[in-house]
Amino acid sequence: MTMRMGPLDEAGIGEVIAYITQLNPSPRIITFTGDLGAGKTTLIRALLKFTNSADAVSSPTFGIVNEYHTGKGRLVCHTDWYRAKSADELVDAGLLEYIHNDDCLMLIEWPEVGAALLEGENCLHVKIEHLDHQRLYLFSDRLS
Question: What's the number of domains the chain is made of?
Fold first, then answer.
């Protein structure tokens, strides 16, 4: 499944959130790819806001994992694999516990280095392209 939405400006991010949240079955793991500044963390912040999370969302680039909770108390793991050198490093950091936790929504920025860890999981992959003050969102069940 590949779907193109956009190009959308910042105001259109609600369309993207609506698309993601209406998927059935709901993805348990959502990955986000795109250049630096493409809007990965911005989209994650909007997604958490939609879930009525009261947590302040920030990029986990240096801490690898940030935990949040939705308004209904569901655990959300936000992780950034930009600085990871290998999948083994992610395993050593304990990320398999989140990947295999069916009660956790996992949001992953820069997933490429750990793609093998996600095989067989219910994933939605979101690629964001930044185009002249607009963003193009591509949705797929495969990391590309």
Answer: 1
The pair of structure tokens assigned to 131 is 């185009």
82 alpha carbon, distance to own chain's centre: 13
* Torsion angle defined by CA atoms of residues 97, 89, 85 and 77, in that order, rounded to the nearest 10 degrees: 20
Which CATH number do you get for residue 50? 3.40.50.300
pLDDT digits (tens, 9 = 90+) for 49-105: 888 888 888 777 667 889 999 999 999 999 999 999 999 999 999 999 999 999 999
Spell out the long-range contacts of 59-68 with Cβ–Cβ below 8 A and sequence spacing 24 or more.
Answer: 59/109, 60/109, 64/93, 64/95, 65/93, 65/95, 65/98
